[in-house]
């Protein structure tokens, strides 16, 4: 078990190295002079030269790269061109808001998706099945930001049930719409997957055996079928983390949510390259860690998985 | 000759299976309708998509609610929203098609080489695929766009293609791994055919079905990504009638109850993405392809 975890973590290392290298290359071939970007029109040649030296921009490219890697290992992602804020600090202040949003969106998606999927499978071809799957496929096909605006229009601007955009820590009413917006897509995917897995499991011999033993249908569904049907669902929850982070970029923009996604958009608008670099690397690493956790937890859920 | 009739038989059987699937046919119909609307946009659209009708119809045509004259209302500049949505189909499909071509141009050769060659070449390409997969899709596309000074439609589809190819490459690689030891490949090798000919002429045609499915399903996510980019201001620029851009422009007026500007383009996106999802699912079932999504 332990060696399995270590091996999985070692697999992630070259991928992380690839991620940071690609981001480094992208942000280095960007046209424009960062020193100018920081100083605007004010900078005299000497100041500009000093800034370039500070940032290591006067070094040859391979030296810049090793310096970047060294800083990264020490947890230093550089400073923002815009306001001299440390990128790591900005990420840490903003990550809490994103984490809360993504966490509740995932909880909502898992609960709603599994429930809808199970009921749809058990009552296959019923009205519920058809309408749930229609809603699910619509949820997968609708752009996240549009869903968010639609919810705002209906529940905030027309019915006045919830406040509009904004983030007030501790006030749960501000969480409702962003969480639903971000949760729609994963909920829809989980519902569809749960349904198809349940349908497959329900035809298995052990389900027939369980029924033949005279177990109540509810026990058969919950204990014998669902437990097995959920295994692939757990995997998709892992891959959904990436989608959730992409979705957070748009959701946070609509709801003026002070998270990492919005930080990334602000950095892009300002062409603040250290910040762009930092947010992209940060999100990719979060995704890899989430998948690592899913990989490892897989062994606990599915006893058929062997660790060697 | 015998080979030809057998392969057309396979495609014919797939079509028979496809025809029986109602959702697949619906998808085909919906996708065809979008394509036709895009092609014949100038004939179908009641107004010019960028014409500000305040000069001809007066000031009351600004943000006018849906009416007999303007079925989906007008925007703040007095432009007819229905006409803009009709012309917007051109932008979405254009990006969808060109980004798919870029993805195929990168993904097919890389996937084929990885799957056929194996060894360290496969390790290297697989590593690259895993790296690109590790990025949140939208954010990576945004980072690529940031490299270019000004966003244009060409930048958008190249950037999306540069990220989207990994899905294609994975599918092609898996196909080549399962096909590379088949007898017909052995035969081609025994004949001493050059490697490129074996890969592209003998194996690739047999690996096409999953690529078609993957590319079709990818259209939906590309169109969605384009909309997201335009919404954030990194895609199509005004006055381009891009659906995502229209939602972005219209969102300011939602709180005033002027919903039509932002809501109708979203329906158009949903309709188009739904079309390609139904079509892709239908093709997958008809071509009997097993894909990991």
UniProtKB/TrEMBL annotation, chain B:
<keyword id="KW-1003">Cell membrane</keyword>
<protein>
    <submittedName>
        <fullName>ABC transporter permease</fullName>
    </submittedName>
</protein>
<dbReference type="InterPro" id="IPR000515">
    <property type="entry name" value="MetI-like"/>
</dbReference>
<keyword id="KW-1133">Transmembrane helix</keyword>
<keyword id="KW-0812">Transmembrane</keyword>
<feature type="transmembrane region" description="Helical">
    <location>
        <begin position="91"/>
        <end position="115"/>
    </location>
</feature>
<dbReference type="InterPro" id="IPR035906">
    <property type="entry name" value="MetI-like_sf"/>
</dbReference>
<feature type="transmembrane region" description="Helical">
    <location>
        <begin position="259"/>
        <end position="280"/>
    </location>
</feature>
<dbReference type="InterPro" id="IPR025966">
    <property type="entry name" value="OppC_N"/>
</dbReference>
<dbReference type="Pfam" id="PF00528">
    <property type="entry name" value="BPD_transp_1"/>
</dbReference>
<feature type="transmembrane region" description="Helical">
    <location>
        <begin position="23"/>
        <end position="45"/>
    </location>
</feature>
<feature type="transmembrane region" description="Helical">
    <location>
        <begin position="127"/>
        <end position="148"/>
    </location>
</feature>
<feature type="domain" description="ABC transmembrane type-1">
    <location>
        <begin position="89"/>
        <end position="280"/>
    </location>
</feature>
<dbReference type="GO" id="GO:0055085">
    <property type="term" value="P:transmembrane transport"/>
</dbReference>
<keyword id="KW-0472">Membrane</keyword>
<comment type="similarity">
    <text>Belongs to the binding-protein-dependent transport system permease family.</text>
</comment>
<feature type="transmembrane region" description="Helical">
    <location>
        <begin position="154"/>
        <end position="172"/>
    </location>
</feature>
<feature type="transmembrane region" description="Helical">
    <location>
        <begin position="207"/>
        <end position="236"/>
    </location>
</feature>
<dbReference type="Pfam" id="PF12911">
    <property type="entry name" value="OppC_N"/>
</dbReference>
<keyword id="KW-0813">Transport</keyword>
<dbReference type="GO" id="GO:0005886">
    <property type="term" value="C:plasma membrane"/>
</dbReference>
<dbReference type="InterPro" id="IPR050366">
    <property type="entry name" value="BP-dependent_transpt_permease"/>
</dbReference>
